[in-house]
Design brief:
alpha/beta, five-stranded mixed β-sheet, 7 helices, single chain, 168 residues
């Protein structure tokens, strides 16, 4: 299940300096990030969360899979095992951008790509695998966890700040 706890796990996996951080420490860290930079952070965390969720789904279906330790592993993101041996390696792309998937297919024409449901509907290619996970859901959970909880526009502090023209 995708929730704020899984977002915090993704942050811990993707940010060495936050690997041991509490949820509150992670929220405080991202509260200090400027909004323009936050877009990149959300995209990065969304990708890591997507990997985690897909592997959990495979495991629930009885398929042993693992993410690579490095979040920037070249060409592939997860390995699928059978009898202790790697039988497949997959790329995962948490995006709505069809052009990005087409570019990836050109770069790595032999590597299957697991994509979000929104993107999968645009392809009839055996190398494109529908994850069953919606990009919109990933985006909203990451944003709600790291942006909305940090800067709740309806908190008393935010309302007072708005009334007096102060940034919150």
């Amino acid at each position: 299940m995708i929730n704020s706890d899984s977002v915090f796990e993704a942050v811990r996996r993707g940010y060495n300096e936050l690997s041991e951080a509490s949820s509150c420490e992670i929220e405080n860290y991202f509260a200090e990030v400027n909004p323009e930079a936050m877009v990149g952070h959300i995209s990065n965390i969304k990708g890591i969360l997507f990997e985690q969720q897909y592997v959990e789904g495979l495991e629930a279906a009885g398929v042993h899979a693992e993410v690579f330790e490095a979040t920037n592993h070249p060409a592939v993101d997860i390995a699928v095992f059978e009898n202790g041996e790697v039988v497949s390696e997959l790329q995962l792309k948490a995006t709505e951008n069809v052009a990005y998937i087409n570019t990836t297919l050109e770069e790595y024409p032999d590597i299957p790509i697991v994509v979000t449901t929104e993107v999968a509907s645009h392809f009839e290619n055996e190398l494109i695998i529908d994850s069953g996970i919606e990009e919109a859901l990933l985006e909203s959970v990451v944003t709600e966890t790291l942006v909305d909880e940090v800067v709740n526009p309806f908190s008393p502090l935010s309302v007072i700040s708005w009334m007096f023209g102060m940034p919150f």
